[in-house]
Amino acid sequence: MNETTLIVLRGPSGSGKSTIAKKIRDHELTQGRKMAYVEQDYFRRTLLKERDVLGGYNAELIKTVTILLLQEGYNVVLEGIFDRDRYGKMFQDIIVSHPSKNFFFYFDISLGETIKRHDTKPNKHEFGEQEMRTWYKAKNFLDCVREEIISERSELEETVEYIRKASKLER
User: pLDDT tens for residues 20-71?
Assistant: First the structure.
């Protein structure tokens, strides 16, 4: 399993994580490499219809799927808000199972910028500024790993290339 790479993209809603995760995955697939995209919102909101609460089942499911994919030879890009208090243990468990080639990136985006970006998304009608204000936590860094910081000034393609290089996907 040490040959596989885990890339974690964390940060506020509307920060660009999903777009970047898809671009990274798509690039890897065009290069003939196995890359899975594990999206927190899919497991929590679509599959389980679960609220984001401490002890929610989605964390266990995401952990299990991520570890399985890494064991089966897939590189994984794991993306979501992943609040430190609710998901810190999940990340600790993943790191125990997959101790190397783990790269964590935190999107340090202001509330105003996340609201502005959310307004450009196709699913902007599903939730709005009021909900985003209640979810937003500035600088919600994990305690268990060092996260590379992605600034709100970082452009899309620049961010994709930075993450690919930092996680040694570029060959």
Answer: 999 999 999 999 999 999 999 899 888 888 888 888 889 999 999 999 999 9
pTM for this model (two decimals)? 0.91
Read off the amino acid at residue 131: E
Q: What is the DSSP letter of 101?
A: S
Give yes or no for a contact between 6 and 94, defined as CB atoms under 8 angstroms apart.
Answer: yes
pLDDT of residue 6: 98
Given a contact cutoff of 8 angstroms between Cβ atoms, the answer to whether 107 and 8 are in contact is no
For the record, the structure tokens of 53 come out as: 């609460």
Q: φ and ψ at 11, to 5 degrees?
A: 150, 180
117's tokens: 């970006």
Count of residues in the chain: 171
Residue 106, classed as helix, strand or coil, is: strand
